Amino acid sequence: MTTIPAPSSDDVLKIEIDGNVAIVTINRPEMRNALDEAAVAKIDAFFSNVPPEVGAIVLQTEGPHFCAGLDLKEHHAKRRSPTEFMRVCQGWHRAFDKMQHGGIPIVAAMQGAVVGGGLELAAAAHVRVADRTAYFALPEGQRGIFTGGGATVRVARIITPGRMIELMLTGRVIDVEEGRRLGLAHYIADDARATALDLARKIAGNARLSNYAIVTAINKISDMSATDGLYTEGLIMCMVQTAIDDVQGRLGDFVGKRTEKVQL
Q1: DSSP the chain
Q2: pLDDT (tens digit per residue) in 125-150
Q3: pLDDT of 174 higher than 70
Q4: Residues labelled catalytic
């Protein structure tokens, strides 16, 4: 495993390369990995320039909690104006859009609090693995604020808008089992980091162009009309088919019974 420089001289964001998998670790455990402006800028910088050898990414954090959301201490101290905070929200949107739509699959390993902006961060990943300590909440209503990192788009799409409204109004905490039922976690594991790394290695072994299409096209197609979506699906399939050597090789392995069939 090789450690490469993070986008800054400090260690708020640690980057390691393990073969064709990048392991991105947010390192603010003393703040429950709450995200300040500097941390979001570092996330933006990494996902703007992912090393070319990386085929999948593990997103994890140090300490007992995944992410407690917006750094409310910084927010309180800065007393931001509405315009200033709008720019903060746009910074989160840019960073998380680069994660979700950047073309490289991201597997999040979650533990402890996945709360507020931490849930927004997790929702920008494509696969989410939780350990048994994980819990989820949107406490913005109790803090006198509103979501600003994309929850109304990403989290509402996962759990439905009505359920998101209920969570924000009541401040109710969802345990890991309910979180999986709602789709906030895809897997529950005793060791979320190890499971996330295993999944990332498997995903990185897929055809690169197929992975790119999967993580960039499906969410965009879901925003289209049915007619436009079906047409776009056909165009994406044609694009993926242009990777002829990879496609023919993989199909040849299946036809030649050199690969496993899909089965339970």
Answers
A1: -EEE--SSSSSSEEEEEETTEEEEEE--GGGTT-B-HHHHHHHHHHHHS--TT--EEEEEESSS-SB--B-HHHHHHHT--HHHHHHHHHHHHHHHHHHHHSSS-EEEEE-SEEETHHHHHHHTSSEEEE-TT-EEE-THHHHT----SSTTTHHHHHH-HHHHHHHHHH-PPEEHHHHHHHTS-SEE-SSHHHHHHHHHHHHHTS-HHHHHHHHHHHHHHHTS-HHHHHHHHHHHHHHHHT-HHHHHHHHHHHHTT-SPPP--
A2: 999 999 999 999 999 888 888 999 99
A3: yes
A4: 120, 140
If pLDDT is split at 50, 70 and 90, which confidence band does 78 have? confident
Q: What is the pTM assigned to this prediction?
A: 0.90
